[in-house]
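Quick log. Single chain, no ligands specified.
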Amino acid sequence: MKHNKKNIAPALIAWLLLLSPCLLEGVHAKSLGLWLLAAVLWAPLLLLRPVRWLVVPAVWLLGLVNVVHVGFFGYLADQFFLATALRTTPSETWEFVHTLPTLTVVMALLWLLGSGWLGWTLLRWPAQSLRRSSLLRVACIASALVWGGFALYGAKKGYDGWGYLNKLDRVYPLHIVKAYLLHRQINAALFYSPQLPVPLSQPAPVQTLVVVIGESASAQRWSLLGYGGGDTNAPLRDIPGIEAIRVMAQGSNTAAALPFMLTGLSANDSVQQQAPSFLDVAHQAGFKTFVLTNSRFFDSQEDFFVQTLRRSADVYTKVGDGGDDDALTEPLRRALQDPATHKLVVLHTFGSHPDVKHRYPADYAALEDAYDNSLHYSSALLAKWTQLLDQSSRPGSPSLLVYSSDHGLVLPPCSEGYRTGLSRSTLEVPLLVWRNPALAATAEAAGMPRFSAQERETPLHGNSMVAQLVRWGVGDGAQPRHHAPQALQFQGRDWQAIAHADRCSLE
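-> predicted structure:
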């Protein structure tokens, strides 16, 4: 039988289309060129049938992941996707599925069916037919020349493995290889010894600190920050000593954003620089440290977040698994009653994590909108916890409560409902500070500046300010750097450019 270009065309088209998710980030001359380059560079993998049976299903499954990931975040899966996937419980995954946008579901189904048929076509294609294709032979020769040339170029430049990968990670699907190696790199160094600041002899400005790590709260729906719908912060409105501003989340999901709140840096930079968390600094300063968590994760798995929270915690308790955040109240009460003169208590909440209608008791109906209701419920808990802190403080004892969310959610009309993803409402989150009268009256409080009215309207700082405020409170000499606005950036883009972009696409 004669095998010509026409015979082989369906197999080559199938191969091209299986690599097409690389175009999901945008179709332009560069992305089209990289798509064709990927098809050529990996063409030799088609010649051996056993290799095809490994490669084609992997590319098909990765394509599905990328279709969903781009539908949520606008970019291909990365190391934060891997970190999230590995710590997500089945119940959380099931809730996540219910928040999938219709368009993303449709695209995922189309990919499953269409690419499944294409993959099956490619898997059944006779290896002999592929080897006899002059077009595929040319592609394989071109692949060998490109790989060989790049290897020589890299050797001349002195590239190591990372050097090569950093130059090639735009060639699909090497982005996921880089993501895997970055994730492994972070996990391999989980048990690093943090480089702590030099201890100071000055007394700590605060004796009791409570840090509440929120989840999925968008500043655009905080009534204290100008939201004109339901009064989502009504329980907090009349509490003396409360201030709230907008800050920038430094990631669009927990895996990317939370490290900034703990250390002030990304997970990768924290590991490379052996950065201390605010818990490490507090523990060194003589504070008894408590971590009470209601976050969902596999309790037996060590990852960056669990290790960072556990490392310097005198008491670490998983009080719930994503249920009602009121489960944190009694453990907080007991921690505040501890006789230690200096205490830091961290409450890791589940907040308004999708699906939002499950983030408050079934009979809690302060507001009609489910997301607004979840924020109102979180505000009621913050008010309760503030009252507990106030009541437990000794007369004249300075106390401080700090709350911020790791990131927000995509809100209507940018989505059908409330979901994880990338939009301006994802990046604008609230930061709340409560000082008791003793702290407000002390001279040390002069080093903790008041927030400006402008900061209620637009973020001038990131939510890494949480770590800065705690470090100031425990007296390590690190003053909160918000006398002047920080140069806020997200994924290499200046915040001002983001603020003036389309609120839904950020383009």
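The beta strands are 208-214, 242-248, 288-293, 315-318, 343-348, 399-405, 428-435, 489-490, 493-494.
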